[in-house]
Write a structure and sequence with these properties.
The chain is an alpha/beta fold. It contains 24 helices and 27 strands. Helix 22 packs antiparallel against helix 23.
Amino acid sequence: MLIFLYTYLLFHQLQADGENTVCRMMGDPKYPLLSKDGDINIGALFSIHSIETLSLFEFTEKPQLLSCTSVNLRDFRMAQIMIFAIEEINKSETLLPNVSIGYRIYDTCGSRPTSMNSTMALMNGQELKAGDKCNGQAPIHVHAIIGESESSATVILSRATGPFKIPVISHSATCECLSNRKEYPSFFRTIASDYHQSRALAHIVKHFGWSWVGAVNTDNDYGNNGMAIFLNTAQEEGICVEYSVKFYRTEPEKLQKAVDIIKQSTAKVIVAFLTSFEMKNLLEQLNIQNITGLQMIGVEAWITAEKLITPNSFRVLGGSLGFAVRKIYIEGFSDYVVKAFWDTAFPCSEKDKNSTQGQLNCNKNQDLLVFKNYNEDVPEHRYSSNVYKAVYAVAYALHSLLKCKEKEGCQKGLTIQPHQVVEALKTVNFTVKFGDHVWFDSTGGAVAQYEVVNWQQDSDGSIQFKAVGYYDASLPPDQRFVLNTENIIWAGGQLQKPRSVCSESCPPGTRKAVQKGRPVCCYDCIPCADGEISNETDSNNCMQCPGEFWSNAEKNKCVLKILEFLTFTEVMGIVLVFFSLFGVGITVLVTVLFYSKKDTPIVKANNSELSFLLLFSLNLCFLCSLTFIGRPTEWSCMLRHTAFGITFVLCISCVLGKTIVVLMAFKATLPGSNVMKWFGPVQQRLSVLAFTLIQVLICVLWLTISPPFPYKNMKYYKDKIILECSLGSNVGFWAVMGYIGLLALLCLILAFLARTLPDNFNEAKFITFSMLIFCAVWITFIPGYVSSPGKFTVAVEIFAILASSFGLLFCIFAPKCYIILFKPKQNTKQHLMGKTQNKSY
């Protein structure tokens, strides 16, 4: 307890001593380049000079002040527009009517140490007044700070002022990292975040069909964050990045490495996410190594930078495309920079020369006097309007905090803290005189609005940044990005858009196959397999054609598969029709011959009725083969098999009847035999009818239960459809075939038994030969029928029908025709009977 009490008293004493200690500033005070006191002051940091000269540190005397050279006209114009806007507000009777705004503008010289020194000066003031105590209640020197121009410098500024909640409003710091409200809660900007620009870069690359690009960025917060967003978006859009390199202005080795990679690459498009400083260094090296013809895609930081325009820069940057801040005309500013500014704001008047500090400032700023009567560049400066809007944003925030009213004025007695200004800035919503609507989103940023500019050369050789489109995030998604490609000049001054792809596009009929170990944009074009198509360029996959379709020769369209069936017009069909009709013709001739000789013994022998019925059935057999040719239909499928089955049974029944007649005839010659009365003409007709009716019954049952039908067979061929007759019921088909086979086998057996009967009166020998041929044909038909594909199955069946029909026709009727035509002397009853008598059994 005593220790705790002692510690408490010790800290209390130290605090009391600290409050009574007089504060003093270490080192020399830092004075602003341009300043003016007001009721409320706004600070600003601009890189009005771009090169800082360091003095020698010998450590024997106090170092001299750093000197800055090389005027950065762009940032000097920003300082001028800030003062111009403040003067407008101070003269306004509606905005902060009785409150004057002062300013303190520091030159950072493009140096981080100087920038930090200037930041401290803005927060602490130039010098402490006598008697100021270090009691933690420092006076408020500025209520807001405008700056800086670069993202990395703005990050440092925001982190330094963040703990004190001093609002920082940048006019050109676009790094997406600054959108983090946890790290930068008091940061605002009147320009859009790089999130929109980076994504828009990917969209413009995608729009022009460039799938193979290189990427180079500044190695700082601005470049690294912007490039990271671009790379992610590019991946989403299917854009491949051949290389991604980065360097900083003070790293010549990395710059040289980046140039070497660019020189060796195959990408014709480079996305350059660089500041103007790095772009200038890269431009110099590309010129030295004569690397030209590359399509540069740039960002707002360099695409309209006047300092990049040199006599040789168009060789490298000609035709460059990029996003730029919109050019906005601010009324009165062009006249202000050549007259009023130098009279009222520039610290080199007679009054300023009388003071030591004024004389020092006047000497330091002699290089700025060169621009006293120059204002031709004013219309081209694109960031001036952002500074103008930033000043007005602070003014509207203060207007709200001071509870200003148009007639009553503002309550000047109120003490405004910087954190109050931060909160007020979140709610500002106004329109400036040139029509832009100003407000801050949840990240402290403004709406993304860019011009798409193109580096073009006029007839006089001057380089112009010509607007060829725009990007406006406030519009609906389908209207945000507009490009007028007809007005674009491409890399090297060409009128034709360059191609930048790792692999050429795969035409329809092929698909992309990624090359192993390379990005997805590097691929081979593989033709689609048979039955697959791709009907668009750069297809990743081939599509399978539907069942009845097949790919065409180019593999880019599904066409109906060829329907294959045996036709009357093809060679095979013509040959089969010829033999079918030839068989009919021969049969008709034999019938005519037999009819003309019907009274001769050789015709009468062995029942002439059966002979004529056999010839009629053979005609039907030849004709039924024609039903197998042509496009299968429901009726033709039923007809072809039933007609074939019935006609062949009729034919075999007739042959069987003739065979039985032969056997019965010779049995009847035996003593005491009267068998012929049991198989006379009536019984022969009835037997033929009975055998045929059985087949008819089988066919009727087949057609009733499961008839044949047309069927599209897609199993044999992938590219063709076999249009055939499905059997419907295999049992029905093989029952028909089996019955024919049974009759043929019975006929063969009976004919074989009758082979030893006398020759002259014996047809059994010829019937035996015909049945052997018939059976041989149909036995070989079975494996041929099962194994033959498509229309050849039908051809095999027709061949079997014709072969067996010709076998029956020639084996049974040819010998008789030979005797009738060439041996008429043997066509007598005496000859036939004589032969019979001479023959022994």
